[in-house]
Amino acid sequence: MNIILLKGASQYDALRLFADEVEKGLKSLSHRVTMIDMLTEEGLVDLNKAVSKPFDFILNFNGIFTEDPGFVDFINTENVTVFSIFVDHPKYQTRRVTSAIKRHIQTFVCASHLEAADIINNTGNNLLYFLPHGGIKSDFKLKRSDFINRSNKLLYIATCYEDPKKAPWESTNNRQQALLSKVLYDGLMKGFSYEESFRNALKSVKLLPQNEQFRKLYESMFDVYTYFRAKNRFKVIKTLLDNGIEIDCYGGGNWKEMFGRNKNFSYLGALSMEETLQKMQEYKFTLNDVCFFPYGSHERTFNAMLNGSVIVNHQSHYYKEIFNGDEGVFFDSNNLDDAIMRLKDLMQNQDKAFSVASKGYDVAQNHTWKERARQIIDIYELYKD
């Protein structure tokens, strides 16, 4: 196949690295890939040249360019297939998820996001699939002699969300909306997806909106999801710190302001994704507190494993499918006690820790973006047929 792969802007350069890995994977499968960097001055010129020759589809991350009217007109006129890989909740990319492109394959890193995309965009143009996040494969080889010399602190790499001063249900005078917000939040805290929590909340307050009314209410309540992401993140960090775990934190935002008073919390600045991969090789343990993909995965899980670090990770239904449980320390944010006990045990026993890191390292080899290339082709072939 001949595939055009678009590369654009990305926080910490994450999506750009993912695109590089997918390119390697596709080429290893003997496909021809034309990579177009849309951040360069020649990007549009290179794209025009690429589409003037025969190709099978255009591939991208997070739907870049799919909201551009000129691009959409060309795609639809030429009957071109676009394949967009979304790596966050569809609501954050509404304009691209609802693009008017007629032949638009969309994949999501959490299975519940398929329902979300279907709710947000009811045009029926899109074909929705689950494609889990992947890690970035490197030449790194895990060795015990290197592992035991790593830092025993817990590495934490994440963006600090803005601390919400008020809960959504405290910010409205509408009693029904306040109740709906609270029940929705409780569902999220129990580990349900936003979509599951929203439907359960509607039932609890005996609301049955239909079609467009349902969609508008679904989108209007999304501040509860944003609030949940922040509150859960802060809760996990605080619980670990209160239990004496030493944390080295890297990432954007006001981490120092949030937790700088804790003697066992060190904020060390922001890093690019490429730098974080190297940093993971310096620590025995890496925390990933992403709780908002309950039916999916996150790249940091696999990247920590691929770089020989024991992952301390929020549990998901997908992780239960691919892991036995002894490849890392998996936790439920409502009950961190068992995870903290296991983490402390591993911190005191580096042979045990190395065994866990080794198991994670081995399994993660099958969960890189390079490996996901095979699934991308499978999805396209399924669509084409």
In short:
The protein has 17 helices and twelve strands. By secondary structure, the chain is an alpha/beta fold. The two termini are 15 Å apart.
Q: Which key features would you list for this structure?
A:
385 residues, six-stranded parallel β-sheet, 16% strand
Tell me what the structure shows.
With 385 residues, the chain is an alpha/beta fold. It is built from 17 helices and 12 strands. It has helices at 14-28, 43-51, 69-77, 94-97, 112-120, 144-147, 175-189, 194-204, 211-220, 222-242, 255-259, 273-280, 299-306, 317-322, 337-347, 350-364, 369-384; strands at 2-7, 32-37, 57-61, 82-86, 104-108, 126-130, 151-157, 247-250, 265-267, 283-288, 310-314, 329-331. Helix 7 packs across helix 8 and helix 7 (175-189) packs across helix 10. The model has no long low-confidence stretch (mean pLDDT 94).
From the alpha carbons, calculate the radius of gyration and give it in angstroms. Answer: 22 Å
Sheet/helix structural class:
alpha/beta
Report the strand count: 12
Quaternary state of this entry equals single chain
Sheet with most strands: strand arrangement: 2-1-3-4-5-6
Helix content: 40-55%
Q: Provide the residue-averaged pLDDT.
A: 94
Task: Name the poorly predicted regions.
Answer: none
Fraction of residues in β-strands: 15-25%
Q: What is the terminal-to-terminal distance?
A: 15 Å
Shape: globular
Supply the number of helical segments. Answer: 17
Major pleated sheet: 6 strands, parallel
Order of helices and strands: EHEHEHEHEHEHEHHHHEHEHEHEHEHHH
